[in-house]
Every structure is written in C-alpha cells, then in structure tokens.
Amino acid sequence: MATVTLKPTKVPELIFEGYSITPDAFAGKTAAQIAALPGHEGKFVLKLGEFFTVSGNGGETAADTDIVIDGDCSRVKYIGSKMTAGSVTVNGNADMYVGGWMKGGKIHIKGNVDSFCGIQMEGGELLVDGDAKNHVGCAYRGDWRGMKGGTIRIKGSAGNDIGTAMLGGTIIIEKDVFIHVSTHAEGGTVIIKGDVEGRVGGQMVKGDMYVLGKIKFMLPGYKKIGTVEKEVDGAKYTFDHYIGDLGERHGKSKGQYVYANLYLKAAA
Amino acid sequence: MSSGELIVKGGFVIDPTRKINGDVGDIAIKDGKIVEKVSSSAKVIDAKGKVVMAGGVDVHSHVAGPKVNAGRLMRPEDKLRAGVCRSGMAQKNGFRMESGFSIPSVFRTGYEYARMGYSFVMEAAMPPLLAPHTHEEIHDTPIIDEAALPVFANNWFVMEYLRQGEVENTAAYIAWLLKVTKGYGVKLVNPGGTAAWAWGLNCLSINDPVPYFELTPADIIKGLIQANEYLGLPHSIHIHQNNLGNPGNYPETLASLKLAEGVKAKNKFGRETVMHSTHLQFHSYGGEGWKDFCSKSREIMDYINKQKNITFDLGCVTLDETTTMTADGPFEHHLHGLNHLKWTNVDVELETAAGVVPYIYDKDVLPNAIQWATGLELALFAKDMDRAFITTDHPNAGPFTRYPRVIKWLMSKKAREATLATMKNTDRVINATYIHGIDRELSLYDIAQMTRSGPAKCLGLARTYGGLAPGMNGDVSVFDLNYKDMPKDAEKIEAAFQRAACFIKDGEIVVKDGEVVSHGHKKTVWVKVKMPENPQVTRDVSQAFHRGTYTVDISNYPVREYLAPHQSIIDVNVEA
Ligand SMILES: [Zn+2]
User: Is A142 part of a structural domain of the chain?
Assistant: First the structure.
C-alpha cells in the first residue's frame, strides 16, 4: 500500500477538473509524475502540480494506491471519477462528479459534496460525511442508464433527483431529501432516513425505496397493499408497503406483475 | 484560398480521374488551385513514402439542420462517448472546444472531416422551411465545403403537379425552391410515405397510394427523375427508398431502382447517372421477419453492376451506439417501437417530417451483425467503384468518424474475419450473409474512387473536386501509408485515414500531423437555375403563402444572404 498526499495550494480561478485524481491514474507513478498529470481549467490544460503539492509515490496498481487530499476541494470536480480500485479520502469538501462512473474502490469525503456524486456508478463505495447537493447516483442527463451497482452513503441531507433511472446498487441518505427519488428507476435501493418533500418513485418500474421519515406529498400512482416488518441498514422497522408507479408499464415475473416498492415507516 | 505556392513532393499519387495508381510524383498548387508547376520558392510538403490523394467528397451525411439539432438536444449523453476530444488545440486562439460523438458539434464536425482529409460534405436532407437554420449551421462548420439537398418527395406542390403528370411545372418549382433555400439538388426520402405519415400511415411499396394526393411513390420517383433531367442539374436525384430497414425489402428496392431504366443523363457537368440510391445497406434485406433476416447484397449488386446509370452509397453499420435521424418519420416511429428508446417526431408543414431515435448497433445482436456484413458486401460485390461510395449515412448507421474503420474492413479480409470472430452469433451471421465467402480486398485506388472521383462525378463536381488534375481545387490529402509496402496490420490503415499526415484545402495547409492548424476558408455550394418564368408556378407559390396554407410569410421563407456568407454558386441555364 502506498499513500499519495495532495495538499491544495491554490484556489482555481474557474473550476479545476481533477479527472486525473484517481488511484488508476496515480498507480505506478512517482510524486513528480503525478504532479505532471493533466486537468482542465476552462479550456486550458494545466497540471495537478499547479494546484497541489504532491508527496508520496503511487502504488504498483490502483488497488495499492490510497490518495489523501489534505484540504478543501470545493472547486475541484471529478475526484475519483471512473476509478476501479484503491481509495480517495478528502479532508474537506468536494465539487461535482465525485465518484462519477466509478467501478470499484472507496471514496470518503469528510465534508460536503456538490451535485452529481456517484453518477452512473457501477461499483465501489462512496461515503460523504456532510451533505450532498442534487443528482446523487443518478443517470447522466439524457441517459436512460443510471447507477448500476455499489453503495453511496450521505450522512447529511441531499437535494433533488436521487437515483434517477437507477438499475442497481444502494443509495442511503441519512437525513432529508427534497424531491424526485428513483424517477424512472428499474432497480436498485434508495433509503432515506429523514423526510422527503415529494415525487417519490415517479415513473418507477422496479426497485425499492425506504423512507423512515415523512413524505409530504405522495404521488397518486402508489397504492398501499399492506404493512410489513423489514430490516433496513441494520435496524428493524414496521412499514406501510406501497406499490407503483401504477401509471407506468410493468414487466411480469411468473405470471405476476412486478412493481416498484415504497416502504414508508408506519406511524408509531 | 491561399495565394502562396505549395508543392507536395515525392508521394505515391492516387488519382482515379487520371488513372494514376501509385506513381511517385509531385502535386503543385498555386492560388488555391492545382497547377502544372510552381516556382522553386514554393513551400515544400515532403510526402515521400506516403499516399497522396485529392480531398475526400462525402455524398451523404447529416451534419446540419433541425433534425441534427433535435438529436443534440435530445441526447446530451452522446458527449460521454466522445472520448478525449478536448485537444490542446482548443487553447490556441480562435480554435473551439469540440463535443459529441454521433451528433458532434459543428466545430467537431468540421475538424474531424478535415483530420480525415475531406474537403466536401453533402448535407443529405434539408427541410426547405428550415433551410435558414441549416445554412446557419453549415456556415458555423469550419474548413469543409458543404451543400444541402432539400427534400422534395413529400412536398405538396410536387405531389399536386405530379398527380397531373406536370413535369415542367415540377421542374420550375424545383428551380424556385433551390434558389430560395440555396439548395443543391433533389432529395427523395420515403417518397409519399412521409406525407402519408401525417395521416398516421406509410407507403411501404412504391405502388401504395399516397393518401389524398392519389398518386404512388413510383409516380413521384419517375416524375422527379424527369424533372431533374429536364433541368440538367449537376446531381441526379438522390433517393432514400421506401420500406427502409425492414426484413424482405430488397424486391421493393429493385423495383424502385428499375424506374431509372432507359433514362439518360442530360447535363453539362459530366454526370452520367440519373439516380443515386443512398444508404443501400438499409434496403438490401431478405427474410420474412427478424428470425430469418438475411443479406441480399448480391441480388442487389447483380442488378446495379449492369445498370450503369445508377450510383449508390453504402450506409455501413459501424457497430456503435449512435443516433438515427431521418425525414422518414414513420420509420423512426417503427424503430422506437422496436427499441423503446426516446423518440422525437417533427412535422414540417406542406413539405416533410422527421424523427430521431438513439440506436445501439450491438455486434452480439444478430440483425445488427447481419446489417454490418450487408453494408460491406455491397462494396465488395461492386464492379465499378466509381459508382459505389463509402458512407455510414452519418449518424444513422454510425458516425462519419468511422469511415477509416469501414476502409479497414474493406481493405482487409483479416480485419473482417477478426470482427466476425468476436460476435456472439458468428455462425448464424455467416449463414445469413455472404461476407465470410468473399476474399476480395479493396485497393487504395478503389478507396480513392469510392471517396473522391466517384462521388464528385455523381454530384456533377468533377471539374473541381475529387481529383488532382491542373485546374482543380487545391485540395490534397496525404496519408501515412506506404503504397509499396502496405501494413500487414490493418489497424494502421484505419489510423492513417483517421488522421491525415497533411491536408491542404484550397492551397492552404489546414491539417498537419493529424491536427487542425487552420480554419481554412469554407464555402457553401448551391445550384442556381436560370429558366424562363413559369406563371402558374409563380402564382401557386404566392397563393400558398397568401392564402395561409403556409403559416409563415413568404418574406420569411428564403435563406437570406447573410446566412451563407461564403457562397460558391453553380449556374444552370435552362433554355425555353
Ligand atoms: Zn441519410
């Protein structure tokens, strides 16, 4: 295992596109080579070394490479995007697209993240200690193929459009969410431990949603079919079980229609 | 145009217009044109050990206009497939960022064609009402010269005239429309079928009646061939036939090709053909359904090889995720029903329609693999390569940036077999196609015919494009291929055609070592017909606008001069 430490030295004038900040790109490189990796600021191609001091060499492979960013990355996008193994830890905030398209490994952001974290993620773990903005684990805009696998855990709250067009994997938001959860989803699990304003599971075909708080406005396309007890993220609760979205096409399995499930924690 | 003198020295010259096949020689350029010789102070481009051809000519590509833009709007995710296209070039002053894969931005379109050594591209379907937008996009596409074909085969004026058999009125209307839209020639898309789509119907056969107009697609095709030759336009009619993309459509294709029999080309541009059948791959299928779907490329080519007044382009499937877009509105609805991906549908009043649907050509999906083979077979069965052109019906069967890959497959049996071997259904593909049994490998000379001399001649542009004779445009592409020692590794052929070692456009170096170094001086080419006033057509057109049949005023209809600032006009004179 090798640890590469980046220390921010300069706030980008625009936004720095840190698509090279991945264990895959750092693997097999010396600190000096890592400092020479490219990144865009607007239309200009710059080097990582212009925004960070780099200490430590990369490991032999991505899996042997841990990256620690010691400081704020509020204006650095694409940290850990497309990574396949290894780890990235940010001791501060991060900008958009953290862990976008990631396939494996682990990302830990100790502050907040902006929008599009874990977009079209296929595997691995993404942990955010603070809040996330919009489009957590959703599809790229226009795309009908959303998150396929892996786990996203946001310890704070999140904005809107969580798990749009999701196909697999798990998203856990420990506090509140605004609107649009699992829109168009055809699989996967979204767990919201706080409250949601509304539009939960619109046009959803398949997959599961758990809400431990309240939904202010339920969609009319969901129907309650019973009450069940289920274990969620290590604790047991009693849920009102809804199916939907009844306005959407649904496939059949063994002669039975398959619906999306919404488990809303039952009033005590 | 550059006034400087240039000489491309010592390359293997391939110029089918003068039957030059790999002779080592120099190409001299002065004042933007090819000349016999230049002075000793001319700038020297060393092409030693490399292949030298004219600039490429693309006969059919969807690169500008409302449906291309509808595709861009509908598919922001397309840019994820672009790969790293933000070259360092964008940092230099004046160069623009590039984006998009199957529906690239105008800048990427111009840059990528130039990197492949192309100098002319035909936008294959312009809705007349939306010609102003089409020209704005053409003007914003750097480097390459472009023209656009307005669509005519579902146009109410045309159908009204042709139901009465009025060829002269049809011709006068075409002349007027080409002038106001700054169009190049006569495009037919699913004749009658797109008009039927306004009633939720289609014309899958050339003998199906078109609702309301009481004529058939065959009447429209015959009438437009006659009108085209009456006018003596540079290009022949350019047809996307009925029943595109369906199993068992090849007899219908043959039936519409036969409508050209006995018609002689009449024009002053050196064109000898009267019908261009586009993206023929989509029209060369056997089988009764998708289960017994198969290639009928040989049956189609047996006919085309002996029918000398027809040209065609391949429409090769490149096995990519792409975006289909066509004025064949009913087809796009049908495709959306097959793949359930998003769909855009547009009606253009009195004139045409369009649809857009994303499509994933998957080598492991049997019909897609058969389509891939069918497109290549058409070229491999062709006897006259000056009548067979390389296209992907960009972006319908794949992006134009895959032409080098198509060339690789055509030039290397090994490359074809390698692709075939990776397919999930290799044996079933072999059974449903001819490709495995074809040993032919095309030569660089064949490729030059298919991408240069052939399309230029069919477009009536053979005096300026597609060759390297003195007097022609100073468009020269240099590829890093040794004619005498062609690489065993077909990947190197693809790489060489993807990024020209050098591309000179109108006497100016616009690409060097595969990268764009200048925006060049692009031109918009269009055809202006001068003919005696036809009072009936003038009255009909004016009434259509004044009676409110059109929802726009006639003053807002034409393409204004400022939208096409760099025009190259081809004059056609029709005597009374
Ligand atoms: Zn087309």
Answer: yes
User: According to the model, what pLDDT value does residue B86 have?
Assistant: 63
A243: tokens are: 């199916």
Distance from C-alpha of A22 to C-alpha of A41, rounded to nearest angstrom:
18
Residue A51 lies in a domain: no
B91 vs chain A: nearest CA distance in angstroms?
A: 6
- Distance, CA of B573 to chain centre: 26
DSSP-assigned letter for residue B327: S
Residues 442-471 in B contacting A (C-alpha not used; CB under 8 Å): none
Structural domains in chain B, sorted by start: 5-54+472-516 (2.30.40.10), 56-458 (3.20.20)
Separation of alpha carbons B271 and B188, rounded Å: 19
Which of A246, A245, A243 lies closest to A263, judged by CA?
A243
Position A179 in a domain: yes
So what's the pLDDT on residue B480? 97
Is residue A61 in a domain?
Answer: no
By C-alpha distance, the chain B residue nearest A46 is: B88
Asked whether the beta carbons of residue B77 and residue A40 sit closer than 8 angstroms, the reply is no
Task: List the domain range (segments joined by +) for residue A249.
Answer: 115-265
- The pLDDT tens digits of the residues spanning A234-257 come to 999 999 999 999 999 999 999 999
Q: What is the ipTM of this complex?
A: 0.89
Measure CA B486 to chain center: 28
Domains identified in chain A, total number: 1
What is the structure's pLDDT at B575? 81
Nearest-by-Cβ selection for B77 from A40, A44, A143: A143
3-state secondary structure of B435: helix
pLDDT digits (tens, 9 = 90+) for A151-195: 999 999 999 999 999 999 999 999 999 999 999 999 999 999 999
Q: How far apart are CA A132 and CA A147, in angstroms?
A: 16
**CB half-sphere exposure, A213, CA atoms < 13 A:** 19
Q: What is the mean pLDDT of chain B?
A: 95
Chain A hits for B78, Cβ within 8 Å: 142
CA distance B50 to B10: 8
